[in-house]
Each structure stands twice: as C-alpha cells, then as structure tokens.
Specification:
single chain; mainly alpha; 11 helices; 64% helix
C-alpha cells in the first residue's frame, strides 16, 4: 500500500502533466508563430510550428519541473536576419508569456462556467484519485490555470534567458546599452543567484522563494476577477511530498476530497 505522501505525489504528477504540456506547447508555439510571421523559415523547418507537445516539451526540463518544481521547455531558435529590429525582438519574446495569459483567461472562463453549474466543486479542496468525474475535470483545469499564470509571470522577469529580458532588451538596449552589457557579463552569477532564490532559499527558510510571491498574487487576483470567489490552495509536484510525515491527515483528505450534498 502506498504511503499518503507517495500517493499524493503521484496524484499531483498526473493532474499537473496536462496543464504543463498545454501551457508549454502554447508558449513555444507562439514564439515560433511570431518568428514565422516575420518570414523566418527556421522554426517550421525544425518542427516548432506545431501544437504537438512532443515537439515543444524538453524531457529533462519536464523531469526537473516534476521533481524540484523548476524546469524548462525547448527554446525556439530563430534567424536574427529576420528579426532585425528591437521591436520585432520584443514582440517575439513577449509572444510566449502573453499566450500563457490568454490561455489562463480562457481556462478561467471555463472554470467560472463549471463552478456556476456545479457549485459543490468548490468543496473539492485537494486533487485525489477519489474525485468524482467532474472533480477530475475541475482539478485538471485548476492545475492548467495555475501553470499558465506561473509561466506568464515567471517569464516576464527581466533576466536572461527569460522572455522578460528579451522584451526589455528589444525595447531599450539601443538607448540604454550599459545595463544589458552588465547583465551579459555577469550572466553566470545571475543564474546562480536565481537557482539559490528558487531552490535553496525556501529550504533554508522553510517558506516560499520571494520570486514566487508575485506569481501567487497574480494567480489569486486572476482567479478572483475571472473565475470569481476565493482561489483554491494549489499544489505542485515536488519530490519532497515523498517524505511527507503528516500521513493521517493527508490520507483522510485524499479519501474524501469533496463535500457533495
């Protein structure tokens, strides 16, 4: 018999995978579509102008995301000869996170309609293998909404190789080159600081990385304004769940995830 922590980790992987595949695929496809719209044949020739997740999701990045909560998709390559101006580079970089925002809004509308027709779904406070069918659909949508919001906010951080840096570089590098040159010279140190902030700091403080705070704020704000009501507590796969000690409470929650009247 599986321990409750192991079971919950498997639950989270299964519920998160569709949303991760969808959000990553849409994100990278939109990068490829914008580059193709500029006349660049490279994304199409590399199979990136596709909504097939196998063409967009990086296996190593996916494994990392499902184990340590930090991963990546396959970046879209483009020919700079077709993306010559700063404005074009900015739009190319912005296409990915903006697509995640649009996806989150669309999922939010679906969630709003679903909750309006079946208000009891709001009592399903935890993903579980014991959910009713509609509960499965609800939590698949919640996870996809959550991942889309996280990708939107996280990718707007203006540090390389994130899209936010590409947007800022495209818009401002020609007028203010010094900050971008400094970032490029200190790229390795910035990567180390990012890894420490995302992975190490939470372990030392027993809380969340400060980088996650704007993501949670965006998730709660979008839920309140698009889906309406109080956002559910979200969960994401992390191997730490395999060693979770609160077995009895978690097992009870997994066995009775909803209150259906």
């Amino acid at each position: 018999m599986l321990g409750s922590g192991v079971e919950f980790y498997l639950v989270l992987v299964i519920f998160a995978l569709p949303g991760i595949a969808l959000a990553f695929t849409v994100h990278e496809y939109c990068h490829a579509a914008v580059a193709t719209g500029y006349g660049d044949p490279l994304p199409r020739s590399q199979g990136r102008l596709s909504l097939n997740p196998a063409n967009q999701v990086d296996p190593l990045g996916l494994v990392m995301l499902l184990t340590i909560g930090f991963g990546f998709a396959r970046p879209v390559m483009y020919n700079p000869l077709y993306v010559r101006t700063g404005r074009r580079r900015a739009w190319l970089a912005a296409a990915g996170p903006l697509s995640n925002l649009v996806l989150a809004l669309a999922l939010g509308v679906v969630l709003r309609l679903l909750l309006a027709s079946s208000p009891w779904l709001a009592t399903c406070t935890i993903p579980s293998f014991d959910l009713p069918v509609l509960g499965f659909i609800y939590w698949f949508l919640v996870e996809a909404f959550y991942v889309s919001v996280i990708l939107f906010v996280f990718n707007l951080i203006p540090i390389p190789p994130l899209d936010g840096f590409g947007v800022a570089e495209g818009l401002f590098r020609s007028r203010y080159p010094a900050p971008f040159q400094w970032v490029e010279l200190h790229r390795t140190g910035i990567y180390i600081a990012l890894i420490l902030a995302v992975l190490v700091l939470p372990q030392l403080t027993g809380g969340y990385s400060p980088l996650y705070l704007p993501m949670f704020a965006a998730f709660n704000w979008l839920w309140g304004h698009v889906v309406t009501g109080i956002a559910p507590q979200t969960f994401f796969p992390n191997i730490e769940w395999l060693f979770y000690q609160g077995g009895a409470n978690l097992a009870a929650a997994l066995a009775s995830p909803c209150v259906i009247t």
